[in-house]
Amino acid sequence: MILLLVYQIFGQSYRGAVAYILVTVSMWFMVGTWLFAPFLFNPSGFEWQKIVDDWTDWNKWISNRGGIGVPPEKSWESWWEEEQDHLRYSGKRGILAEIILALRFFIYQYGLVYHLNITKHHKSVLVYGISWLVIFLILFVMKTISVGRRKFSANFQLVFRIIKGLIFVTFVSILAVMIALAHMTLRDIVVCILAFMPTGWGLLLIAQACKPIVQRAGFWGSVRTLARGYEIVMGLLLFTPVAFLAWFPFVSEFQTRMLFNQAFSRGLQISRILGGHRKDRSSRNKE
């Protein structure tokens, strides 16, 4: 989806509306089915109360702490740790392959930062270096907020709120200065988000591959917090359009009519019967 958005912003090959639709419609269809097919083919996927219940359960799952004896379906932390089990048996070559594959996100960032209007079309490597400085600054701010929440949120709520307020004011001030003096545009902001989010994901993959080193350095908690942040963003991306559609009753009714349509149901039953015949035939062949 991010690549399609980047193509929409910078693509020059197909500028006609018809040509653009013919080139990208199949890819947008694939993105939509990958993200929303579980909701579309769930008979209760657009019922408002079900969405509220799912959102509540998902918030509990994403917030619960993991650990020994906590199953993955009860805690995101346990699920996340389980997803990395293969890295423990990958060996040095496997870890090196994971790191090399993660570098593709940095190449992607390299290609985008030079398209920013704020760079004045400079091709110096300093532009790429400054983009990394911005990324490390963002990670430092996230670490500061995490430490502040852990140390001050319980006993010194006022201090923690002041720290968050100062960070927010500083961010807005820097953004205003960049817009006023460096002529930063709205498109630059969008491109920065599209460039930095995959870069953060690449750093996350490298940190997971180098887990023993990161744990000894004391940064594993920050890596987990960053990973949870990506999961929350993805959850919002999925829940927001589904909740918006569920707010209209006719969407759920239309989905119910579609799923329980006789022709549609007959097609599903036929495919299931054919699949059963294939399984029976394969089992007989094995016998």
Automatic annotation (TrEMBL):
GO (cellular component) term, any one: 1,3-beta-D-glucan synthase complex
GO MF term (any one): 1,3-beta-D-glucan synthase activity
Keywords, alphabetical: Glycosyltransferase, Membrane, Transferase, Transmembrane, Transmembrane helix
Leading EC class: transferase
A GO BP annotation: (1->3)-beta-D-glucan biosynthetic process
E.C. number(s) listed in UniProt: 2.4.1.34
Domain Glycosyl transferase: 13-181
PANTHER family: 1,3-BETA-GLUCAN SYNTHASE COMPONENT FKS1-RELATED, LYST-INTERACTING PROTEIN LIP5 DOPAMINE RESPONSIVE PROTEIN DRG-1
Protein name: 1,3-beta-glucan synthase
Organism (species): Handroanthus impetiginosus
